[in-house]
Amino acid sequence: MPGIKDSLELKEIVLLGRTFDEYFRAFNLQAVNLKEEKILDAASGVSSFCAEAAMKGIDVTGSDRIYSLPASTIELKCAEDLALVMAQMPEVAHLYKWEYFRGVDELRDARKRAYKLFTGDFRRHGSRRYVICELPETDFSDNEFTITLISHFLFLYDDRLDYEFHRETIRECLRITSKEIRIFPIVNLKGELSPYIEKILTDEAFANCTKTVQTVDYEFIRNGNRMLVISA
Ligand SMILES: C[S@@+](CC[C@H](N)C(=O)[O-])C[C@H]1O[C@@H](n2cnc3c(N)ncnc32)[C@H](O)[C@@H]1O
What we know:
The chain is built from 6 helices and 7 strands. The protein is α/β, with parallel strands linked by helices and 232 residues long. It has one domain (20-231): Vaccinia Virus protein VP39 (Rossmann fold), CATH 3.40.50. The protein has a 7-stranded mixed beta sheet, sandwiched between helices. The N and C termini lie far apart (51 Å).
């Protein structure tokens, strides 16, 4: 019998990516006319959102610190991280809701499909679509994008990214984004609402920003079906 754990045990932030459909639901994008937007996917990693969006004629730029690495190195690390997470699944399966994915095989297939689509696109388009960036800093201009999406990065990893990092990353994304930034999920790896949510909502630095927490049509981490929307 596998033991039960209250969180995935990860030495570092993993290289696992989500698909376009997962982003579409997680960020409530059905309500957005995507072809009119210029979107930044911040900490986009090996998600296939950018690649799939481009195929649909949507303007998305990916940005992540891993884009300084060759595609072959990234692909190897994805395969290792996927194996690492899958090996822990029996012990943490209770933290997830098995509806969008009906089981671990579907989850593994989706994560594999995402990174294969990503690496193919990364090899073809490189730095024209995927920009190297080490948050909380970026080299983008003021209001270069209309919407910035941050998926499975802030709040989720609140055990290793401190509050200062969260605040500075959000400030920087507000600087480079004209309409709004959307952050999903707002729970951490234990499936608990990150304490940093309350801190962001009450932080003087964002006193003049509009901040809303919205429920979305995507829940894989149990209780992780809400996103934070912030605009300056
Ligand atoms: C769990 S992945 C999420 C990938 C993608 N957003 C998704 O939801 O599928 C987190 C990503 O954050 C990236 N990352 C970690 N620290 C970063 C930093 N300081 N600046 C930019 N990217 C970072 C990692 O390289 C990784 O690709």
